[in-house]
Amino acid sequence: MNAFEITGGIKLKGEITPQGAKNEALQILSAVLLTEKKITISNIPDIKDVNKLIELLGDLGVIIERINKDTYTFEAKNIDLNFFESDTFKSKGGGLRGSIMIVGPLLARFGKAAIPKPGGDKIGRRRLDTHFIGFEKLGAKFVYDSKKAFFNVDATNLQGAYILLDEASVTGTANIVMAAVLAKGTTTIYNAACEPYLQQLCKMLNRMGAKISGIGSNLLTIEGVKVLGGTEHRMLPDMIEIGSFIGMAAMTESEITIKNVCYDELGVIPEVFKKLGIKLERRGDDIYVPSQKHYEIETFIDGSILTIADAPWPGFTPDLLSIVLVVATQAKGNVLIHQKMFESRLFFVDKLIDMGAQIILCDPHRATVNGIDKKYKLRGISMTSPDIRAGVSLLIAALSAEGKSTIYNIEQIERGYQDIDTRLRALGAQIKRVNADAPSH
């Protein structure tokens, strides 16, 4: 098993460029199945979850050519629908939560699909009902085989429909949009997710010949077309990486410039970090974070404790709450972190408490952080990464801590962050990859 060994307490300095957006990639790559024409996609992150999906597309029969490190072409001319019945598909599809995203395009183009019950992070229940209820509204019929943990879907006659989503699920909205673009008639999706990544997908589909209006709002209208063509697409930088680097700079008192961030697509993210007292400047399309010894958490206007909670876009993304929590441990002041969407994403705080952070875990969804204003440093410990975002939060804590930390199960971190150790070393971080068995406790 690989682990990271980190010697903390070192100020970093320099420039870092965020990778392409993981959450956008899983949607955009699945959309190549909607056409037999060539699609060129650039700024694809070289991370495990994305590479697994590209491999799965290849197994399905998509012709894939890698142009350079982050650019690929895809041609889904001859798709092998029998691949769904193979053991290979069951193991690969079941091990990748993003594999659910291929269902919508396959239903739209071929009228059928199958998918093993997907895996992914252990961060609580993540229902797929939104996806399947949407497909059902469009006329699909699906059967869950509980013995094989497998979904089979038949959609030989998809018809446009009015769909009111019970939750503004990003992947659910994307999947239904991809199913609806080739359905007969008009589909209306209300309470649709409107994240920048979903906007990117809709704009790409429109360039391919789809007719989607209302992009950027929670009311999408899709007029079905008979066929889609090819296009070129460049993915946005990963906003979760950008937020992670802002937090890392503050925790380590580092002067860092985050390059090419597509600032206008970041929503409230910069403002939330400013509420923690972190100084940052927009310089063109870069974010400059100066070295700062202290940062103080704001209060609400009436003086009550600041609450930071996740919400559907344009609210604050749940993927950055773990980062906000760890950054708050070294701030001056208090903050209540409210993780509404996933009930066990805060369970990594015990590691931060072991490092010396002052955190009260109120319940599975809420934690109160008493910032220690860097009066003393966190101390390095050995810990295990439970999921992608908690793993990076622990990595940031380790970079700021006194002494050596070891993080096990870094495969979780590398599912979402490309070459993270190499890029951090370029800023001066003392981080190295080692082979080590995780502690048994």
Automatic annotation (TrEMBL):
Gene3D superfamilies: Enolpyruvate transferase domain. NCBIfam families: murA, PRK09369.1. Keywords: Cell cycle, Cell division, Cell shape, Cell wall biogenesis/degradation, Cytoplasm, Peptidoglycan synthesis, Transferase. Cell wall formation. Adds enolpyruvyl to UDP-N-acetylglucosamine. The keyword Translocase does not apply. CDD domains: UdpNAET (cd01555). This is UDP-N-acetylglucosamine 1-carboxyvinyltransferase. Belongs to the EPSP synthase family. MurA subfamily. Pfam families: EPSP_synthase (PF00275). HAMAP family: MurA (MF_00111). One of its GO terms (biological process) is UDP-N-acetylgalactosamine biosynthetic process. It is found in: Cytoplasm. UDP-N-acetyl-alpha-D-glucosamine binds at residues 97, 319, 341. Phosphoenolpyruvate binds at residues 22-23. The gene is murA. Residues 7-421 form the Enolpyruvate transferase domain. SUPFAM superfamilies: EPT/RTPC-like. One of its GO terms (cellular component) is cytoplasm. Coiled coil: none annotated. One of its GO terms (molecular function) is UDP-N-acetylglucosamine 1-carboxyvinyltransferase activity. The active site is at residue 121. InterPro entries: Enolpyruvate_Tfrase_dom (IPR001986), Enolpyruvate_Tfrase_sf (IPR036968), MurA_subfamily (IPR050068), RNA3'P_cycl/enolpyr_Trfase_a/b (IPR013792), UDP_GlcNAc_COvinyl_MurA (IPR005750). Its EC number is 2.5.1.7.
